[in-house]
Amino acid sequence: MKSPDLQNPPVQKILLIRLRNIGDVLLMVPTIRAFREAFPGAQLAALVNAGTEEMLTGNPLLDEVLVFDPRWKMLPLTQRVVQEGKFLWEVRRRGFDLAINTTEGDRGAFLCLASGARIKVGLYDASGLWWKGRVYDRLVRIPDWKAHLVEQMLEIPRSLGLNPRDKRVEIFYLPEDREEIDRLLRQEGVGPHDEVVHIHPTSRWLFKCWRDEAMAGVIDRLEEAGNLRTVLTSGKEEKELKKIDHILGACRTRPVSLAGKVTLKQLAALSARARLFLGVDTAPMHIAAAVGTPVIALFGPSGEFNWGPWGNGHVVIKKDWECRPCGRDGCQGSKRSRCLEEITEEEVLKEIFQVLSRQQKSS
Asked: Is there a single domain that holds both residue 322 and residue 261?
């Protein structure tokens, strides 16, 4: 397929589709910026799954964020048809000229087709359904699947002749989000001038998590240092809250826990307030990097070359073993990853204190 002509007639309405998880959507921002810079006067919209939209709402690069709810498929057939039909109509009536599915997904391909856009672009998928090749006017091949996800997505605008320069990932939150974080911290005895370390030890996938007792040991060392407060967060799922309880139970000290109490925007505000962020391969790690907070990330079965914190000044702690990254849900399906669990407290504390020391010298 030759590259479609985006100037004759000129593209005026653009739709970028990314039906993935929270972190995936946030890492789409440089691609959004590439299209905004190339088409400054165009209407630019993103279409994402419900629960991920906070990564993009408030971003001045976008005119609109459309939200598809995957839970509609759980409705009785008639209700599902009505809900999805209304959504498809809302997409189509906007009259997009250019629609781009930024993943290999079938649903994104269908939405791209349903948009009625004059030009439709998608990712090449050798194992995909046969009809998807007929949907698109342009199929983009990713030349290096070991590249970071940001760079992989930027292959889409590059394939259309655009030249992305600004690769920053940003997230935007309101003053009210910072005020709520300050209020919650005050309730825990943390004042506006107290320095904090933001720790997010959990993931929806527990095989990405470090040992509870090791995390508790790191927390105790930081709390006992006397000049920092540690603030723990997690998602609202029961398994994540239980993990936080186990970590707190293993602590000698009393860190602050905001587990399950904050929104994604408030999570960004907390990370921006912190000296550094400590966590595993999760969306909050990407959020912390996006607000410019130094990240120390522990990686096990997932590949840091694809999913590491984006930007400069971050640290990835990992084991350089031949078997990783394997992408599996723990060793032999155990839900526990030895490459992650064998990271020591000393390794983590060394990196934390080095980051804090550099900050102290530069202040």
From this structure: yes
